[in-house]
UniProtKB/TrEMBL annotation:
Taxonomic superkingdom: Eukaryota
Basic and acidic residues compositional bias, start-end: 187-197
Protein source organism: Rhodocollybia butyracea
Protein name in UniProt: SMP domain-containing protein
Region described as Disordered: 43-74, 119-155, 168-224
């Protein structure tokens, strides 16, 4: 697998995990937020089967939600991940808005632009092309090299955005179908597993249940 393909696999796999929300804990307020985030990212009302429509259906059963509502940040990440998945399955380019959350190019400085370029370059295996988040950030930072001190972007946010944008570019370059590449975990090499693990560690709090974890398990069994 190429570096860019592994990035696609990691991002798609992470989206599956990030996108999981216990809908029994969702109330009308949370459902409205998910619908708003997903509608804005897609540019049209989320269709039946989307996370937003499922959340609304569930919230109708328990309008006030559960005793422990989901973290608003998790809700937004899940909604954006679902929007990217919907467009990918429709054979459409993944909306850039689903990967740049938390990054305002009008405030970005040179240091942050360099971080984006470095992470996206590593995730693609080649220099990010024009139209990439990294390239746009460099062009924007040239206008205000120091950025805005009070609006510095967290390195984790920059890293996640760079990796997700790399996956978006790879999908568009690979084919217009944008269907995520299939991975046979039985054939993943040790080197590929390490790369997947590195990527998924940057995207998730834990790699439990990921493709990287499954590949590691199979590699361990082969060694015994």
């Amino acid at each position: 697998m190429s570096t860019a393909t592994m990035t696609e696999v990691a991002v798609h796999d992470a989206a599956r995990i990030i996108g999981y929300i216990d809908l029994k804990s969702i109330g009308e307020s949370e459902a409205r937020k998910i619908m708003s985030y997903e509608h804005k990212a897609l540019g049209y009302r989320p269709p039946p089967g989307s996370l937003a429509s499922q959340a609304q259906a569930e919230a109708a059963k328990h309008p006030k939600g559960g005793p422990t509502p989901p973290d608003p940040i998790i809700l937004k990440k899940a909604a954006l991940s679902d929007a990217a998945k919907i467009e990918s399955e429709r054979g459409q380019p993944i909306p850039k808005s689903t990967v740049v959350d938390g990054i305002d190019l009008s405030n970005i400085g040179e240091a942050e632009a360099r971080k984006l370029m470095s992470e996206e370059h590593k995730a693609l295996g080649y220099r990010p092309p024009p139209g990439s988040l990294a390239a746009d950030a460099q062009a924007a930072a040239a206008k205000h090299p120091s950025g805005k001190a009070e609006k510095k972007v967290d390195h984790q946010v920059l890293t996640e955005a760079a990796i997700k944008d790399a996956a978006r570019i790879s999908a568009e370059r690979r084919s217009r179908s944008n269907s995520p590449p299939q991975v046979d975990v039985n054939k993943v090499t040790e080197e590929e597993k390490k790369k997947l693990q590195s990527l998924e560690t940057k995207l998730l709090d834990s790699t439990a249940g990921t493709v990287a974890a499954e590949a590691q398990s199979i590699i361990d069994m082969k060694k015994n």
